[in-house]
């Protein structure tokens, strides 16, 4: 009869308990038959109880305390005079002792994996005196292990890789399980490994946990990943042992075991002849089931009539072969090309050469399509020269272009005026002869770069472009002149023959052999007694004094005309005037003062004095401005009441007219003619920023007394108000007139009268007066104000 797992565990517990009790019986103290002995006049009694350890089974599941063992002393006669006490690890909390009998019990379930043993101390005491009758002894309670922990894979789940096509027995990865049970006691911690899932591709070593390949020639391209389940079981794999599992994901890594192969033996592509150089013609790819570096390929053209016209390169991302143009295509010259292209792996594994060859060939045919091409010039750049003295209409050169198509359409020429904005040149539309259209000037523009357009007569949209560089040849058409504006001075104390200026000349022309200038004084200046000129023969000349005793009071400025001639053919000349100022110089000959007016100043009045006088005048002006500004600020009002700002205010009253009979409803003349003529008073302390209307003269009209008094009251308030604006302003008040049967309905008039007037009759006048009837027809509480 087979035992179940629970019954088997109970049986193990009973056996372990029996062994423990046997050990405890052997460990009980035995009474010593030895007699005491004496040493150095002292007596010493030999210990009468000795033990060293007890055993207790872990994971006790009973309800009563678990008996551990018994302590007993020879001194104990069984009369209850001796009591036993226990101290140390777990005393009273886990282990208790019967103080009368010495029996030790465990009150809690023990786990060896938490603590394998406990160290305690036992002592026998006299119950009356509470003094020890025996020396304290130390002992150990060891927790006896049972198989209560399953193996665990602490590092799982695992991932690993192994190259495809590996031989049988190739190590993949090692798995390790740990068991918390006691490895020194029984087989509770002895683990064996087995594979539950992953067969027949992989196997595992039972003792070491090393996973190995079990089948040869596993192909990644067929299946690249496997999931394994590994079991670890204790008790050496026997029935009743505990087990744990983990998963292992094994990925087959790629090797170069697949050669490249073109899907087709030949390809054909059509390409227009106008396709630019370096354009992509086609993309081809050889299939390779491998990945990564094992799928990297190189392409090359090994044969065909397009070796120099096309080239092929590889796209590193897609491993495609890219065919591009190296030379321009011409349908009229060649209509098709044939290429033999090879694709080969870059990294070949010698172990799999038998699966090769690791290259493949294909044929690519490229058909060139005819397109309508623009005219083509015989040269991409034409260089021409013309003299700047050439007359209008002079022929400079000729350009030529032709239609490259089979139709050979006639060509017409023109100049792109964006490159010849000034229209210096013309071209004959039929012959391509370029002529001058304007006079040329090399000094303005030495080289003209123009673009000539050639278009087909049958298809003007087809335009070819040619480039012409026209160089203008120089003639001697510019006279020499001073190289700069000279500021020449001569000291009053200058000596005869003293150099006062060195001059040079420039010429806008560009002779082939360079410039050569000749300097001299003009005929009228050649015999002057003040200065002379010396030609240095190096395109420079020197001006020297002929006398001394120059005085500013007599003549402060001299004008010396200099004649300059170039070496052109024919030669050109010009007269340039050199201005020489007489100056007062210091001992080193450095000019100090060159103005003759300096002598007019009073003697003793120096420049410092003039500066001081000017500073005083400026200071006085600043003080006057400050005083004026302060006085103006005192007259400005301190507070400006925005509510009383009456500049150009317009007061509107939403009153309707008196009907068709009222022809004077909006006669403003009545408001501008008051009873009293008042003088206009204008504030003169502050000038207004804008011009306002002045207050007019009023004439009296008896019917407007109310409005006249109202306006004069406002004027008086403004005159005495210190915060009123310092300028005149105009305020207008509406007046309705006298022609209405209802007479005036003005709010001002209604407020000024103390009588209660009935306006109920307004409701009888029709819809035009409905609003007035609503406003005034219900009594004095609804009057408009």
TrEMBL record:
A Gene Ontology biological process term: cell-cell junction assembly
Cell compartment(s), UniProt: Cell membrane
GO cellular component: adherens junction; catenin complex
Pfam families hit by this protein: CADH_Y-type_LIR, Cadherin
Signal sequence residues: 1-27
UniProt KW keywords: Calcium, Cell adhesion, Cell membrane, Cleavage on pair of basic residues, Glycoprotein, Membrane, Metal-binding, Repeat, Signal, Transmembrane, Transmembrane helix
Recorded topology in the membrane: Single-pass type I membrane protein
Gene Ontology MF terms in the entry: beta-catenin binding; cadherin binding; calcium ion binding
Domain Cadherin: 73-153, 154-262, 263-377, 378-482, 482-599
Entry keyword annotation includes Cytoplasm: no
Coiled coil, from the record: none
Listed transmembrane segments: 599-628
Function: Cadherins are calcium-dependent cell adhesion proteins.
Record's protein name: Cadherin 7
The organism's taxonomic lineage, starting at the top: Eukaryota, Metazoa, Chordata, Craniata, Vertebrata
